[in-house]
Amino acid sequence: MEIASLEKFLQERIKVAGGKAGNLGDSVTVTRDKSKVTVTSDGNFSKGYLKYLTKKYLKKHNVRDWLRVIAANRST
After folding, report:
1. So which residues are the signal peptide here (predicted)?
2. By the 8 A CB rule, do 39 and 29 touch?
3. Of 1, 10, 40, 66, whose CA is between 20 and 30 Å from 26?
4. Other C-beta atoms within 10 Å of 55: how many?
């Protein structure tokens, strides 16, 4: 499993303000470092929705049982 594929998955699947999937515009950016994917939003963005998409990706690659999705802190 590569982090680049997770980044691509999120860019293709995130919906902004009820729009179509993959149409992020300037309001949401998805970036990655070596082993970290960061999603930054200008407006309101649901952390639960991001966890849902990430868990969906992990399930698709059969690694959801071994990995856990967490947030850096309570407010992010």
Report:
1. none
2. yes
3. 1
4. 14
